[in-house]
Amino acid sequence: MIDVTTPPTPQRNRPLLGAKRVYKANTKHIPVLATLVLLVVMYSVGVYNYDGFGDTQVVLNVFVDNAFLLVVAVGMTYVILTGGIDLSVGAVIALTTTVAATLLEAGWPAGVVLPLALLIGTVLGLGMGCVIHFFKVEPFIATLAGMFLARGLSLLINRNSIPITNDFWTQMAQKRFRFDDGVFISLNVVIAVIVVVLAALVLAWTRFGRNIYAIGGNADSALLMGLPVGRTRIAVYTFSGFCASLGGVLYSFYTSSGYSLHGQGLELDAIAAVVIGGVLLTGGSGYVLGTVLGVLVLGLIQTIITFQGDLNSWWTRIVVGILLFAFIVLQRLVTRKAK
Amino acid sequence: MTNLLRHRLFWPIAVLVVLLASNLVFSNNFFTITLQDGHLYGSLIDILRRSAPLVLVALGMTLVISTGGIDLSVGSVMAISGALACLLIGDLSNPDSTTSVLLVVGAAIALCLVFGLWNGFLVAVLGIQPIIATLILMVAGRGVAQLITDGQILNVHSAPYRVIGAGYFLAVPVSFLIAAAAVALTVALTRRTALGLLLESVGGSPTASRLAGIRARRITIMVYVFAAAFAGVAGLIYSSDVSSADSNAAGNLIELNAILAVVLGGTALTGGRFSIAGSVLGAVIITTLDITAVSVGVPVETTLLFKAIVVIILCLAQSPTFRAKVFGRFATKKAATREAVAA
Amino acid sequence: MVLQMTGIRKVFPGVVALDGVDFRLLPGEIHALMGENGAGKSTLIKVLTGVYDIDGGQIELAGEQVRFTGPLQAQQAGISTVYQEVNLCPNLSVAENIFIGREPRRFGRIHWSEMRKRAHTSLARLDLDIDVSAQLDSYSLAIQQMVAIARATDVGNTKVLILDEPTSSLDASEVEQLFAVMRRLKDENVAILFVSHFLDQVYEIADRMTVLRNGRLIGEYRTAELPQMQLVSKMIGKDLEALEQIEEHAREAPRQETKIIEAKGLGRTGSIAPFDLTIHAGEVVGLAGLLGSGRTELARLLFGADRPDSGELDVDGTPAKFHSPRDAMTKGIAFSSENRRTEGIIGELTVRENIILALQAARGWTRPIPRRRQDELVDKYVKALQIRPADPERLVRDLSGGNQQKVLLARWLITEPRLLIIDEPTRGIDVGAKAEIQRLVAELADGGMAVLFVSAELEEVLRLSHKIEVLRDRRLVEELVNTDDVDADRIMQTIASGTTGATP
Amino acid sequence: GCGGGDDAGSGNGGGGDDKITLGFSQVGAESGWRTANTKSIQESAASAGIDLKFSDAQGKQENQIKAIRNFITQRVDVIAFSPVVESGWSTVLKEAKDAGIPVILTDRAIDDPDTSLYKTFIGSDFVEEGKKAGDWLVKEYNGKTDPVNIVELQGTPGAAPANDRKSGFADVIKADTKFKVVASQTGQFTRTDGKAVMETFLKSQPKIDVLYAHNDDMGLGAIEAIEAAGKKPGTDIKIITVDAVKDGMTALSEGKINFIVECSPLLGPQLMDLVKKVNNGETIPQRVLTEETTFTPEQAKEVLADRKY
Ligand SMILES: Nc1ncnc2c1ncn2[C@@H]1O[C@H](COP(=O)(O)OP(=O)(O)OP(=O)(O)O)[C@@H](O)[C@H]1O
Ligand SMILES: Nc1ncnc2c1ncn2[C@@H]1O[C@H](COP(=O)(O)OP(=O)(O)OP(=O)(O)O)[C@@H](O)[C@H]1O
Ligand SMILES: [Mg+2]
Ligand SMILES: [Mg+2]
């Protein structure tokens, strides 16, 4: 046998490892940092080029106008972190607004409608989660069916857009938190920020949050490690459904209407925001903060386009594409360099 | 019998049969095929003809998905290819000359190849996540198509061009023949060469594939080029069908339908094993579903619900766990034992 | 009796993996589960812990009949398991991997610093001192295996500890640490189920053993009462004498003088210091070193799996630059990774497809290997390496761990390389097949193939190699020609003393 | 909004010259009609010397709200937009009102009861268009008693023009029981879908007398399907469409379409007029209807030559 009585231990505590540690800890944050830096660069370019771009309100407007997207994207972040995807969010927004508007129009009190509206997406999410987990249906397809279902239902309820005149809703819609003359945020922003903070905390500080990462890293291993994979997965889709519904409620505050065509293509915006924010579509890596940055990037691109103001429809698309391209490639190169 | 039930394509085929059968009950003359002006005419022929663009796009999508990627830009590529073709044909001195139309078609497809290379470059060389890499072209590409057509619908009057989407050869729709040829080409390419194996390997495990000496980068680029080329041809069929290029509507949401077709056909979105027959079947199911909704007279408001329900049923039927849970564990267990004994 | 399994039956489509197996585990014993590759050891473990449903039989835990629906339940019932292959989350930190699911909490939230501290202690018990907040996949497979062990042995209420080939990529000293921990747990009355293909280890630690063959129970024995040779014959169903001959054979093989590759100051910062290494045709070069000493990294550089950032590499006397493994392959170099699950097999492809993959990649996609030729090649190696079940159309994923390893080996052998780099090729392979593989390596070397042989099992390296490169601290410290006076002790001394010999 | 008005005025004065800035948010570029509309607005802005800030909402209300909000921050002089949907504008329009920026609606109306939120609406009435189509049909089959089987190609489900054109048409024909809509499906406002749906109609419906399409494009697609089925569009099946884009008018003049209800996209000149008036503080009517008419094949032949879009 090998002489194991003289185990050569000293070389294990290598100084090299210490150096490596600091370095490794950073690599996980690089995508988010890169996004942040590029975002600032993009903003500066905007301020430099356009009058009035530097107004505080321009930045706040990005939040005001994207609060619902932010909420939806947070839910999507959870789903994508487990390696899944949720295509139903846009349609859930439509369904939520339609149901809310219809019930309000029928004279139901806001106190009843609000929880009901929030329940819609939650229940749908729960259903999709169960189908995905118990019957091993691919998330893409399960949620695509959910998308058809939700949009189909809202179309069935009413194909017209329904105005919301309920007092509570109007108040919520017009609630403004003013900081200065002409500098304000809406209630939606406050709600979105709360959701973001809570979601980030849950992800970083709770078992549930860590299980999400584990499943995204390797679902089979997570199962063998004795983690509640099924429960977590179902919870994640339920949460995303809830976020979509909450997004729908914010959307109905934002537009004071319910409509079966609301939120079309929003799922793609949400996915894009999440991915731009550095979350890996294969799961297991990324942060809610990244998602916030991703939403800001999309919002800022749109703001730049509006400030530019002389682009016709197709140039709008092309320029959005080019900005997206420039951003993503730079982000990629920065990240790669840093690694 | 159990073997048949176990076949990967059993459930998609079953759903297709049910869809067709429902037409037998709820709509008139669905299965009549007549000869009209020297070509076949009937709802079944419509299904073949209308499936063509989706089949083409789904073929490309299958290859892309098999490497673990996804291509959202196919719809925009369709729009661009149709737009460019119509623009060029509009400039032809003689739009009825077959050679010039062929040249135009070549040019349009060549442009699509470039777009495919672009996607492949972003994914394979820069290492950008496929969904976001192709999102760029999805957004910008439609803009490019609108730029080409100046936002208008471009009409063309060209007999040879019309043949692609609306013509017949030996009484059979040309678009169907094109799709069939594409299927044959893809099958040959993936199953007669080693491409299929290498694709599945790259999709199954990129790291292991690299260490096995597979040039994953090259293969990945190639796959996006294929997807774009097929999308380009689909775009030509789409625009030729109505002899005009509508850069806004062409290929709208086709990426979703194509992905749906691929997954219904039994290919996993995570990459690896793929089934071309399955994707084709998936595409035909989706087209049949659309046509059935119209011919059975499903109201507009419920069409989406109808689609959702069919998709859900098909997914559940395909899920072995669901079958086991619903039809009882007993049946599957017995079958397994029997099989084991046989082996 | 802590655990009693009776008449266990498990059927996979086409295979009866377990058939009427009885198994008992007493408190405070270490019980080895023995059997060839594919005998059904891992399946028995998975059936026990609820990963698979049972098709027949009963399980009693502490006198009560149980049937778990998943590992979570088993864990809650006091069964702690290290499954074969590393089943951890590569994207999480080491500390999290040890504690996920039972993180220390304070005020309802995870107490990170406490967790790191406890992870550190828990690894220290295995004599491992690494940065626990670094991501798991930044560590080598061996370290990951240690982390998995740490996870399983750090559970409070464990009644049963199951270790499925925990030592497959560990060095002798790590194995010793593990055994120390096992003995301690044993004293605490924990029942331990241990699977290993290293007979020495089994004889060192196990009290009793159960032997399986082809999914059937052969018998239950006291270790002290069953001599090694008898155990082997019970496992494989016939006698084995092959092991002895190789030793003679390999050492006396003539050395050829054509250089195949020559590395001059080749290195990569952060992974391995610049080294010189020459490999001749027909030569078997062994790499020896401790856990994380850089053997794998050295091998990867030679294959172009990682890019060197200093020095140069000559192949056949001309400088070569490998940008990818593919470039190395065109020069006739092959490399089989130690990490078969993530860098080796492609689970959803069949055995046949996995075997021909590298050859096919080398030919390019336009020149498919004709099916008949594929079948010939595959058949040959399925037989030679005793891959079981011998069905080339089975998915590799469904093969037992050892058989997957054989498939990988076959993949590279059919490319007929001039230099074969094999990193832990005998990991998880049973005694019979191991002897077979060793003989094969020796034979190939005789035929002129150069082999770079990396293994955590020093004896194996000694037995096969003509010369041994000793690594320490990711630095090549010495080259030893494998003469009669070289033995394990000598190598361990070299490593420990840190003499800087032939290296720059 | 007095103080706000001053604000806007000073922003204007700060610009140096007295050029009016108009922020215009368009629905998108979803059809030929829409792009013609955009073009008309861009061209007439240029010729009227108005500085146009154009924004494309790509069919999404949220984008439009964002755009309007951005116009407010940029302190444009006048905001005009074609609402994607009817409801849900009160919040953002109130912001505009608070900032003292007048708003003009074009093309589509909004259903907010608070009419002070916008100065005026210029555009067409989709319900009226549907009615006009119905009126023609009633007149065409006046005196006949045989049942008339109608198939309908609807626009995008949920879109206002689709909803209104459907209901306006239905309102008129329901008076007479001989009219029967035997099938109604969406053709998504596109030619290809119009053709596809019509193909199926032709097979599943034993007898079709009339086709009513919510826009020209679907009608044009359907014509192809009808021809492929060996029937004569305009004769075997009577066709009514809405819009009167050039391609539609051509088909009308060839007798393939029987009747087109005009829905003019050329709002530009009228809009610029209103913008100037609003900016000068002149009073203007609450609702300005575009001059729209209907076309029969004969009328189409006359105007076809100088049809721009
Ligand atoms: N999921 C599965 N599907 C089909 N067959 C399987 C599956 N898992 C295992 N098998 C088969 O069951 C048999 C027993 O495998 P098992 O993994 O238990 O072997 P083992 O004794 O652990 O071998 P090794 O020492 O190589 O790890 C093998 O023939 C294997 O091919
Ligand atoms: N304290 C440590 N001990 C061992 N390995 C470490 C340690 N710290 C980090 N590592 C990681 O382990 C790897 C060691 O390199 P390599 O895989 O070449 O080792 P090896 O000699 O093949 O040993 P083995 O495979 O037995 O772990 C490196 O990637 C390094 O980052
Ligand atoms: Mg095993
Ligand atoms: Mg190693």
TrEMBL record, chain A:
This is Sugar ABC transporter permease YjfF. Keywords: Cell membrane, Membrane, Transmembrane, Transmembrane helix. The keyword GTP-binding does not apply. The gene is yjfF. It comes from Paractinoplanes lichenicola. It is found in: Cell membrane. Its main location: membrane. InterPro entries: ABC_transp_permease. It holds the Pfam family BPD_transp_2. The chain crosses the membrane at residues 30-50, 62-81, 87-104, 116-135, 141-162, 183-205, 234-254, 260-281, 314-334.
UniProtKB/TrEMBL annotation, chain B:
It is a multi-pass membrane protein. Signal peptide: none annotated. The chain crosses the membrane at residues 9-27, 47-65, 102-124, 131-148, 168-189, 219-238, 250-269, 276-298, 304-324. This is ABC transporter permease. Keywords: Cell membrane, Membrane, Transmembrane, Transmembrane helix. InterPro entries: ABC_transp_permease (IPR001851). Its main location: membrane. It is found in: Cell membrane.
From TrEMBL, chain C:
Residues 3-239, 255-498 form the ABC transporter domain. One of its GO terms (molecular function) is ATP binding. It comes from the Bacteria. PROSITE patterns: ABC_TRANSPORTER_1 (PS00211), ABC_TRANSPORTER_2 (PS50893). It holds the Pfam family ABC_tran. The keyword ATP-binding applies. Keywords: ATP-binding, Nucleotide-binding, Repeat, Transport. InterPro entries: AAA+_ATPase, ABC_carbohydrate_import_ATPase, ABC_transporter-like_ATP-bd, ABC_transporter-like_CS, P-loop_NTPase. The keyword Secreted does not apply. This is Sugar ABC transporter ATP-binding protein. It comes from Paractinoplanes lichenicola.
